[in-house]
Amino acid sequence: DLGHAADGLAARFKPEDVVWMNNCYEIFLKKCDKIKNEKEEEIQPNFLKWSLGSKLVDVGNAVCEKVVEIDRDVDLIKELLWTVREITKINDDGVTNHVSWLFWHQTKGSLKEFWKSS
């Protein structure tokens, strides 16, 4: 449940930021579904690096790996969404699109069950 998942975030972020993260996370999941079902145009890793910057891509990749290790901790993805928004000033749709593709590129081999087409 997203409200419960945000409990840890509430202690560190303003309420409106937690609401934004929860909403953005829902969009992130929908974009992941589109990626799974090949209904989304792929964003290549080189474009992600150009658009987000190498440092943010490295941070994002580390977050994705950590999510895999600790059983898909949604708070980490929510914080990554927020970080991308704050650092890049990309609009909300761009944030979720970039993070979804970053997540796909980083986890397609390790989360095969998650990425299986539905």
Write up this protein.
With 118 residues, the chain is mainly alpha-helical. It has one domain. It is 75% helix and 0% strand. It has helices at residues 2-5, 7-10, 15-36, 45-52, 54-69, 74-88, 92-107, 112-115. α3 (15-36) crosses α7 (92-107), α4 (45-52) packs across α5 and α5 runs antiparallel to α6 (74-88). The model is unreliable at 1-6 (pLDDT under 50).
Q: Based on the structure, what is the oligomeric state of the protein chains? A: single chain
Radius of gyration: 13 Å
* Ends apart, CA distance between termini: 22 Å
Shape: globular
- Percent helix range: over 70%
Count of individual beta strands: 0
Low-confidence stretches: 1-6
Sequence of secondary-structure elements: HHHHHHHH
Helix count from the secondary structure assignment:
8
Strand % is: under 5%
User: What count of structural domains?
Assistant: 1
Structure classification: mainly alpha
Main β sheet profile:
none
* Rounded average pLDDT: 85
